[in-house]
Amino acid sequence: MKPLVFLFIALFSLASFSQNEVEQVAQMLDDWHQAAAKANDEAYFSKMTKDAIFIGTDPTENWTKTEFKAFSKPYFDKGTAWEFIPFERNIYVENNLAWFDELLNSEHMGICRGSGVLIKKDGKWFIKHYVLSLSVPNEKMSEIVPLKAQFEKSFLEKNQQKSNK
Question: In the sheet that 48-55 helps form, which strands lie side by side, from edge to edge?
Answer without folding.
Answer: 62-64, 48-55, 124-134, 110-121, 97-106, 85-94
